[in-house]
Amino acid sequence: MSHANPTPVRVGMTGTFAGKAYTIIARVVMGMDDEGETYYWNEFYLSDSSDRIAMLVCEEVYGAQQWRLFTEFTPTTPLTTAQAATQQIGYHVNLDGVSAEVTVVDETRVYEIEGNAPDWVSVGDEAKYFNAEASGKMWVVSWSGDEVEYYRGMQLHPEAVAQALRLPPASFKTASASSGSRGGGGLSPGVRSALWVFAVIGFTVFNFHRAGFFNHPVSFSSVAPPPVVQRQPAPPPPLTVGSNVTLDGKAFRVVDHRVVECTKVNAQWSSHQYQVADDTGETNLLILRAQPNSSSWQLFKPIAPARPPTPLVAAAMRAGETVTIEGFHGSISELFMSRTVTNSGASSDALSGGLTYHYLAQTNATSLLASWNGERIVFHRGLPVAKHTP
């Protein structure tokens, strides 16, 4: 197989992922052996000018380029190489405060390097690794010698990669139902995903292949594509710009309406988001379907923390972590990204175009919505709407 770059991504490009700016410093061709046959994929090393490195991984599955982003982290419970080497499929590990099941144990090799890879990556390097997953999340542990590295993984639709790097979406390969290629996939050093992934508009959805985790030869040509999580379109808009609405007995006027497409691992849904103004002119954010599979209304008031966290801090938050901001104290329940599909009216606090990233934290009664891009972050405190007219 040729080691040429099959993607429009190039060393030296800059982009923003999860609100964090990166420069692509190297492309590494990785491979693994499966019963005498080698499968290859590409990993792009991303630098944020600190000691932390991220990897943008591309492999071909069903003829489509599937993308994942891996970021390095320090586990709450580190493992020695001896402990890592004892892991087997079906074991459970706790790296990030979550009990995760080991789904893959394997090893990889570096075949080619373009650009300036980190000092610890060289052609011919071999490393062992295992993947663990829980609740749609993925962790990767890799080791060579006495060094153990840890990464969190997330999936990116090609459109998200294109937007992050300011490239034409059409330059990225999309799924082909007639293709029969097989992907190896992974992360250097020593990372290979046990996921079969299938592209849907807006994002890539995980579908786990649990019959052997690539320990036995499988022919894609004889295996039907896995089922995908269906997109949840927005319901008909219940309000229009200029109309009046009463929310829990208080009157508001609709000044802006957006249809927003939201995506997280294993879910994609569209919501109606309205800016509504009260009699004093203060605007609030009214959301129909802030979460997938929900038909509820929530009214969010903007808040301005005296010392707000930066977008970089928000991008590092994880589900289950505690957030304390302006008297709110709750746990993060959702991490997702969004893009505006349609917009009518004039929103005063919407972030600029492109992808926006969010976390939703909750208590028993209230919610906190954080929204950010590479430039700024905004916060809203929310309550469910018990009664609305119309």
Describe the structure.
Helix content is 5%, strand content 50%. The protein is mainly beta. It folds into 2 domains: 14-222, no CATH class; 244-389, no CATH class. The protein has an 8-stranded antiparallel β-barrel with strand order 2-3-4-5-10-9-8-7. An 8-stranded antiparallel beta barrel has the order 14-15-16-17-22-21-20-19. A two-stranded antiparallel ribbon has the order 11-12. Strand 16 and strand 17 form a beta hairpin. Mean pLDDT is 80; it is low at 175-228.
Mean pLDDT: 80
Provide the structure class.
Answer: mainly beta
Query: What is the β-strand count?
Result: 23
| Beta-strand fraction estimate | over 45%
What is the straight-line distance between the termini?
A: 62 Å
Largest sheet: 8 strands, antiparallel, barrel
Number of domains: 2
Please give the share of residues in helix.
under 10%
Give the key terms.
about 400 residues; elongated; eight-stranded antiparallel β-barrel; mainly beta; 23 strands
Question: In summary, what is this structure?
Answer:
This protein is mostly beta strands and 390 residues long. It has helices at 81-85, 158-165, 311-315; strands at residues 14-17, 20-34, 37-47, 53-61, 64-72, 92-94, 99-115, 126-134, 137-144, 147-156, 195-200, 203-208, 244-247, 250-264, 267-277, 283-288, 297-303, 322-325, 328-345, 356-362, 367-372, 377-384, 388-389.
Protein topology:
Layout (H helix, E strand, L loop, with lengths): L13 E4 L2 E15 L2 E11 L5 E9 L2 E9 L8 H5 L6 E3 L4 E17 L10 E9 L2 E8 L2 E10 L1 H8 L29 E6 L2 E6 L35 E4 L2 E15 L2 E11 L5 E6 L8 E7 L7 H5 L6 E4 L2 E18 L10 E7 L4 E6 L4 E8 L3 E2 L1
